[in-house]
Amino acid sequence: MSASQTSAPSSPRPAGPDGAASPRRLLEKLSPVSGARLGDFPVADEAEVRAAVARARAAFPEWRDTPLASRIEVLGRVKQVLAEQGEHYARKISEDTGKPTFEATMMEIGAVPLLLDYMLRRAPVLLRRQKVSTPIVLPGKSGFIEHFPRGVIGIISPWNFPFQLAVVPVLSALIGGNTVVLKQSEITPIVAGVVEDLFRRIGLPAGVVEIVHGDGSTGAALTRAEVDMLFFTGSVATGRKVMAAAAQRPIPVELELGGKDAMIVCADANLERAAEAAVWGGLVNCGQACVSVERIFVVDAIHDRFVEKVREKVSRVTVGGPDEQADMGPLTSSAQLGIVERHVNAAVAAGAKVVFGGEKLQRPGQFFAPTLLTGVTPEMEIFREETFGPVLPVIRVRDEDEAVRLANASEFGLAGSVWTQDIDKGLRLASRMECGQVSVNDVIQSVGHPALPFGGVRSSGIGRYHGDAGILAFMNTRGIMVDRGFLNSEPLWFPYAGKVSHGFELLKGITTRSLGSLVKGFLGLRKKMTRPK
């Protein structure tokens, strides 16, 4: 439980069979902008989670058997709801998170129809039965691959992009015929209500999407429930717990975890564009994105010029709440504010220099100044650990090779970027970066490219979503082989007597790709297919 959500008095639940009312635990939500109380929200217990999973399980057969075209029609209604309710939803997201309404509109809500359109177009291609080639040693047979839903998917989503990072995986699971139980972060309970409203409005059958509200105990209960897959977005520490819970059964798990994304600025980069990108890429959503720019590697030849450009642009970033139409809002989580302060203070104590910002703003709410640091080294905590806040750490390097080496010297590997006017060089450097997504002369926006898979390596997670991978991630795969059934027996079946030499000939044909040996061996086996009478 974060400091921005504290326990509130319990409220009674409806009376049970014995007439006694059981208490319901509540969480108090405080505004990250002003600290004002925004309301109390219930915490679902283990029994409620199990009941939600049971309803999703009961709804699964009918939704699975609903024709894909019909599922597509239902899910396509999301776009109409967002067209009608998008402004209202964006303002509720801003109220809950403190982020600028423009960011809530474009990065939370706007990303959903873009990614959904891709799913609706690609699902009929990906989910139909596909014929595959069959080797010559299996004559008369045909091979097929098809996909079928895993079942009930448990999705646990985070607080930094609480709308997009809940809705997109839910849609990805639903289009393939799965049902979903969704648990959203207790830090953003208002957005949880928005997501619930969206799925109610599109007219899904009862039980297809179940939403359970609560804190970490609710999420833990979902990992123990009888779901068929877990999809988690959040911290590495919690991801390990989710993975351990999944291993108990075992069931598939996808983890979208943290990042420490590297930005490599080459000597021939367009410094104006690179500096603008660094500021936006590090400060958008107050730096609370797994793909935020968290380490900027700048070659020595242009280091000072680049830093000065960034300093000048950071100084123009406005900070405030949604009503102030500022560029950057507060940190959504008060606990995260403490981490940002610790990282900056430790870096300065170890020799880093604050070029701009570096402290909490003296105003109500959870505001930290946009911060630019130089002199950051690999030994510092701010180089190694995810900061998840509005801090731009700059690391001076000799050349691009050193930049790539240091960029890869991390437990994380989610995304990164390369800045150069030589696109071939940019692609070469991108291919050397050990992460799931790389941009050349761009930052973060690759996440919104609907055809690109998204996910990380090492501690940044397991699995991919978005693109084709985002649909198939929630599907089982089945292989089917069909024989025409004309023969009463097969060359490899009993009896074995007299077949050894022909088997050696067939093996020779397989290993040397000799058509003559293949035919000779196969015909020899055919002659020995039946036992003498």
TrEMBL record:
Q: Where is the composition biased (Polar residues)?
A: 1-10
Answer yes or no on keyword Zinc.
Answer: no
Q: Where is this region: Disordered?
A: 1-28
Q: Where is the Aldehyde dehydrogenase domain?
A: 24-478
Keywords in UniProt for this one? Oxidoreductase
Q: Which domain of life is it from?
A: Bacteria
Single GO molecular function: oxidoreductase activity, acting on the aldehyde or oxo group of donors, NAD or NADP as acceptor
Q: Which residue ranges does UniProt annotate as crossing the membrane? A: none
Q: Which PROSITE patterns match?
A: ALDEHYDE_DEHYDR_GLU (PS00687)
Q: By its UniProt entry, which InterPro entries does this protein fall under?
A: Ald_DH/histidinol_DH, Ald_DH_C, Ald_DH_CS_GLU, Ald_DH_N, Aldehyde_DH_dom, Aldehyde_DH_NAD(P)
GO biological process per UniProt: aldehyde metabolic process
Active site (record annotation): 256, 290
Asked if Hydrolase is a keyword of the record, the answer is no
Q: Which family does it belong to?
A: Belongs to the aldehyde dehydrogenase family.
Write the protein's name.
Answer: Aldehyde dehydrogenase
